[in-house]
Amino acid sequence: MNNAIEIINLHKKYGQLEAVKNLTLNIKVGEFYGMLGPNGAGKSTTINSITGYVKPTSGQINVLSQDIEKEFRFTRSKIGIAQQEISNDWFFPIEDLLFFQAGFYGINKMSATKNIKNLLAQMGLEQHKRKKMRALSGGMKRRFQIAKALVHDPEILILDEPTAGVDVELRHELWDFLRLLHQSGKTVLLTTHYIDEAELLCSKVGIINDGRLIKEGTVADLKSTINKSSIVIKIREGQAHPFNQILKDYDWTYNKEELIISSESPNSDLPKLINTISTSDVKIDDIQLSKTSLEDVFLKLTGKKIDD
Amino acid sequence: MIKNWTGFFTLSGREIKRFFSVWKQTVVPGVVTTLLYIFIFGVALENRISTISDIPYKIYILPGLIMMNVITNSVANSASSLLQMKLLQTLPELMITPLSSTEMSLSFIVGGTVRGTVNGILILLICVLSGMPLENPLLTVGLIVMVSWIFSALGLIIGQVADSWDQLAVIQNFIITPLSFLGGIFYSIQMLPDWASKISLLNPIYYSINSLRAATIGVEEFSLIGSIIIIIVCNVFLSSVAIILMNTGYRIRS
Question: B125-159 burial string, b = 16+ CB within 10 Å, else e?
């Protein structure tokens, strides 16, 4: 499969600050790629380099196999981006802004009309189309940003923290919409510092920290790199426990009637454990599985939580 | 040079619609200010200076007033539009579209040129109604357009370099306005001491006013052809600087 975006040794310095350090990554056509990292990790610098807004200090970026500088008209026409920072035009209603945006991409008013009408409807902005930006709520502004990114029907959609600061309901609506876009064949690059967002949407995730790509893979691959799953068994109060004898083969701890057993494959270990513990006459009140999350992966790789 | 024609026309159209959408701020003030100048300088001072080059003083100053209005509006349009886009975060979004630096620069310059021309022609109409002769209407309009283009290009450069409204105001108030006044709006530079008259020849605004005086009231203190050549040179020079500066991304790209 061809690469939609190919970043080779991207390096960006702002004065003494190295925002991105020799970053190399490929995003395949049709992939839903999540760029995960804390604030200041270099995510926005990376995507702004792809669009050509940021001039890299060194390195090369290709979009659909074309150099973004030499073939900027081609590469930019293939990318739609919803920036993290919401722009705020004072002069024109949002419908006019969408027509302007289409025009900048070489699409005349007649050709753009149908797509703009559909986008306004899909984003729930139809009844607000003659309003100016400042009259829109935060959620509407965010939806408008996405409509603007899609006005020229790009093959690659880049979303920089699309759900930052939006309420839960809108976040779920946006997720559904992004899934539909991906299913329609678009390549999506999403930057986020919401772990659940990346886990839920992305077919591949790259973890960026301190300007470097420190790990990349599918969510399952990343989770399998650490073994932090465990089985938590609540034991009925007041019982003597024979775990030293019966759980010799496991790594376990017992504290305040809570037995925690580390496991690489909790699903297959669980029936065996229940059987072992039951035969020893210990009464069980509750059982829970604690599985590895991307959060755990991030913590292990970077030594800090994503919100730190 | 221009490949994305739809994009170029769209951005030019946006710039024109932008200033028309706030016409009370962009068109009316120029008209009111010029009427005040005509009244104060033309009527009140006419008793002190009756004629210059055999032309009544209140008529003599009118081409200068037209040019002052043209210059102020064309500079302000592209400078404020670009700075506003910077501050409102709409510029980064524009800069990642498939518009080249040349296409973007020319679109902003066209916007400022149209504003300068619209204001210039409105003031021209007021001046003609006030009794100003119009010897060469076609040349008059051509000069208004050319001077609007020069100062729109200059405005674009200023808008790109400035980072705040304060910086913009400083450039407008301490460079553009003094140069306009010293370009001979209200007097002939021949009335100045020799040294001041020679310094005035370094001021490009002088040639704008001189050429418009020649085209309207027929007073030619400096060669009309010479003035037009200087205007064309300024046009090419400032447009090139604006395009090159936009291409460097100075203060507009990270």
Answer: ebbeeeebebeeeebbbebbbbbbbbbbbbbbbbb
DSSP character at residue A126: G
Instruction: Provide the 3-class DSSP secondary structure of residue A280.
Output: coil
Give the C-alpha separation, A194 to A234, whole Å.
Answer: 31
| B73 pLDDT tier (thresholds 50, 70, 90) | very high
Cβ within 8 Å, pair B7-A100: no
Q: What angle do CA B193, B234, B62 make, to 5 degrees?
A: 55
Beta carbons of A87 and B90 less than 8 Å apart: yes
Q: What angle do CA A99, A101, A102 make, to 5 degrees?
A: 65
CB of A295 closer than 8 Å to CB of A223 = no
- Residues of chain B found within 8 Å of residue A88, distances taken between Cβ atoms: 88-90
Distance (Å, whole) CA B178 – CA B200: 12
- Chains A, B: CB pairs < 8 Å: 86
Would you call A52 an interface residue with chain B, using a CB distance cutoff of 8 Å? Answer: yes
Report helix, strand and coil shares of chain A as percent, to nearest 5.
35, 30, 35
Q: How confident is the model at residue A228 (pLDDT cuts 50, 70, 90)?
A: low
Evaluate whether A78 touches A52 at the Cβ level (below 8 Å): no
Residues from B contacting A (CB-CB < 8 Å) are 3-4, 6-7, 9-11, 13-14, 17-18, 21-22, 84, 88-90, 92-100, 249, 253-254
Measure the CA–CA gap between A231 and A116, rounded to whole angstroms.
52
- pLDDT band with cut points at 50, 70 and 90 for residue B186: confident
pLDDT at A1 over 70: no
HSE, CB side, 13 Å, CA atoms: give it for residue A92. Answer: 18
> What are the CA-CA distances from residue A168 to residues A139, A163, A164, A174, A177 (Å)?
11, 9, 10, 10, 14
Q: What's the pLDDT tens digit per position in A230-245?
A: 888 888 877 777 788 7
ipTM of the shown complex = 0.91
Q: How big is chain B by its Cα radius of gyration, in Å?
A: 18
pTM (two decimals): 0.88
Q: pLDDT tens digits for A97-152? A: 999 999 999 999 999 999 999 999 999 999 999 999 999 998 899 999 999 999 99
- Is the pLDDT confidence value at B228 over 70? yes
| CA within 13 Å, CB half, A298 | 27
